[in-house]
Amino acid sequence: MGKLELTRRESYTNALYQIEEFSTIGTCEMQEDTTGSGIAGNTSVMVLCDGIGGLERGELASKIAVDTILKCAEEYVWKERPIDFLQFLIEEANDAVFGLNDERGTPIQGGCTVVITLTIGRKLYWANVGDSRAYIIKQGEMQQLTRDHNYGELLRRQLEQEVITQEEYGENIAKGAALTSYLGMGELKEWFVCREPILLDRDEVVLLESDGLYKLLDEEEIMQIVRRNVRSLDVVGEELLLCAKKNVTNYQDNTSILLLRIK
Length: 263
Description:
7 helices
């Protein structure tokens, strides 16, 4: 399947959790994905941000957002109100990206997606803005936890609500990948924060991914790779990226993966 060139590879583990991080630059000139995670006792945090290439300094926007979220998670006591804390993290990261300036003090029109997970013991909480995703893989099933904030999802909802016709949907869906919300907009148009946690069982896997993965591998392919190697997440990450690379025709976007397993 060819050689895998990683721009980031990290591993964290304790008695309760295993976390693995992988990023590859693909065929892009710059890595605009940023990932980060950490484990402290019976809690963990994972975050993935994907810089928006059509705006300025996507790589800086994603780095500032991840740094802000990890710093807040380290400095604040959040166990008692994790859902409220996720909302706080989104607001803080959005403010940090929106307030970016260049070396001359000129505002940078940067932006990025974000997907975050928090765990307390076996309880999983999550949030997102944009189209980076979180999934849970368990018992032969793969469930998307996050909501995409893009034009395609907006069109789908409008079609279901009979706001637009099937013909209008077909005329506009080619623009479906355009984001309708992202960090750095100033006032966010859309975001998603879970209402209740999910209780994770042993060997269930949480997957965070940028669109560079799910545009090249479908859910069935991803699930089978995870199921074959559930006790070896280092193998899972590398195999996912290698299989995605095999499916590339002309262009491969930045691709990032974070994996968490309950032991």
